[in-house]
């Protein structure tokens, strides 16, 4: 959706629960994709998950696109998620499953980095998969690793910027 996500989200979730024969009170935890991705979409999703978490008294569990891409992958690898203008968001998958801090870079530069460092390049592919987010969140919930509240994973600054003009001066 290009517009109206915030207004449509809660009714859509209620419809989804009803179709599955469930209600809000049936939820034990809430999984949410944290990005990287569309700034507005991520903010809306994380805010809604945190609000529902508080209202329902259940944990909200954040899952990044890197978490999804890393599932089943072996280190050393370079995980790449698509970004605008032939760029990627890239992070190294290290031994033990840890991730390096992600970076925004040209796709060709990421592939060159992977080759130079002997990393297996994985991606770039979109991984905004609700089933994968739910699966990882369920694993974290079952293992008790739900203490940290989800927050958006922003790797680069927003394309939108505040106006550069000086605000009008209000006269006394």
Could you characterize the architecture of this molecule?
The protein is of the alpha/beta class. The chain has a single domain (5-143), classed as 2-Layer Sandwich (Nucleotidyltransferase, domain 5), CATH 3.30.420. 37% of the residues lie in helices and 19% in strands. It contains 5 helices and 6 strands, in the order H-E-H-E-H-E-E-E-H-E-H. It has helices at 5-19, 39-56, 65-70, 107-117, 130-143; strands spanning 30-35, 60-64, 77-83, 87-93, 103-106, 120-122. It has a 4-stranded mixed β-sheet. Helix 1 (5-19) packs across helix 2. The longest helix is centred in the N-terminal third of the chain and has 18 residues, at 39-56. The protein is flat, with a radius of gyration of 19 Å. The mean pLDDT is 90.
């Amino acid at each position: 959706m290009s517009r109206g996500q915030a207004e449509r989200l809660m009714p859509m979730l209620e419809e989804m629960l009803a179709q599955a024969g469930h209600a809000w009170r049936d939820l034990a935890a809430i999984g949410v994709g944290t990005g990287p991705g569309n700034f507005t979409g991520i903010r809306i999703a994380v805010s809604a998950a945190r609000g529902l978490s508080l209202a329902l008294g259940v944990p909200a569990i954040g899952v990044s696109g890197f978490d999804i891409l890393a599932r089943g992958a072996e280190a050393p690898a370079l995980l790449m998620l698509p970004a605008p203008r032939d760029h990627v968001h890239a992070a190294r998958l290290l031994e033990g499953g840890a991730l390096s801090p992600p970076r925004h870079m040209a796709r060709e530069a990421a592939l060159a980095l992977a080759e130079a460092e002997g990393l297996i390049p994985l991606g770039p592919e979109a991984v905004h998969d609700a089933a994968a987010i739910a699966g990882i969140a369920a694993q974290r919930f079952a293992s008790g690793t739900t203490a940290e509240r989800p927050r958006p994973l922003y790797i680069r600054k927003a394309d939108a910027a505040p106006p550069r003009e000086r605000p009008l001066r209000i006269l006394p």
